[in-house]
Amino acid sequence: MTAIIVDDEKHCRDVLALLLQRFCPQVQLLASCVDGTEGYQAIEMHHPDLVFLDIEMPGMSGFDMLEACRFTKFDVIFTTAYNEYAIKAIRHNALDYILKPIDKDELVQAVQKAEQERLTRVPAKVESFVDYLHRQKTGDRIALPTLEGLQIINSEEIYYCESDGGYTRFFLTNGKVVLISKTLKEVEDVLETKGFCRVHHGYLINLRYVQRYIRGDGGEVIMENNKNIPVSRNKKQEFLNLLEKI
Predict the structure, then answer these.
(1) CB of 5 closer than 8 Å to CB of 29
(2) Closest CA to 161 of 211, 192, 206, 195
(3) How many structural domains is the chain composed of?
(4) What's the rounded Cα separation, in Å, for the pair 176 and 145?
(5) Is the pTM of this model over 0.90?
(6) Average pLDDT per consecutive 10 residues, the chain (246 residues; last block may be shorter)
(7) Are 115 and 36 in the same domain?
(8) Which of 37, 57, 164, 243 is deepest in the core (most CB within 10 A)?
(9) Domain presence at residue 64
C-alpha cells in the first residue's frame, strides 16, 4: 500500500514514519506533508492508497483538505489528539482514527483494517465523509416538521430539546416551544455536531447556553433561561469533556 502523512507537527510525522517502517513494512511512504495544502498537492500528484491525516492544523484543516481533494479513492486514518466533535463525525462515517500519542499496536491494527478493506473491495468512504462535511457546512439551519408545516430555524435559536415519548419539544430563545414528531435520538443525530450534548435520556442541550454546572451524582445544568436540567451519571464525563472545550 502506498501512503502519505499529513501533520503540522514534525515529531509526529517522524514518529509515525518510523513506526510504519518498523511495524508496517507493507506500507510504502510516498510523502510527509507539513500542512493541508501540501497534503492536497501530494494526494493529487501521487494518488495514494492510504492517508494518515491530522485534523487540527493551521490554515487548512484535515477536514478542509479532504473537501478540496478531487482524487478521493483512498482510505483515511486520522491521527489526532482527542476531540469529541471530530471523533463523533469520524465514527458516524465509519472511518478509522488513532489517538495521539500513537500506539504501535493500534497503528498495525488500523493499517491491517485498511488493507483488508482494499482486498475485499469495500468502496472508499472518503466521498461519503466529504458529503457529510458539506451537509454540516450548509449552515446551522434545520427544518422542524410541525403540524402546520416546516418551521425553519437556526440551531443557535435552541436552548434545549426535551423528550416526550415519540415526540420532542424544542425550547427556543424567543420563548416559543415547538413540538415535532421525532424522537430525541433522531434529533440528537442531527444536532450532535452543532454544539449539542445529550446530558440525560430526556434532554439534549445547546452547550453555548450553559450558565452553570452544579456538581452531584450526575449533577445539574442551569441554562441561560434559568431552566434546571439533570445530568445523568453515565453522561456526566462526556458532558464535562465537551464543556471544557468551549
Answers:
(1) yes
(2) 206
(3) 2
(4) 15
(5) no
(6) 96 97 97 95 94 89 86 88 66 77 94 84 68 61 79 89 94 94 90 90 94 91 95 92 75
(7) yes
(8) 57
(9) yes
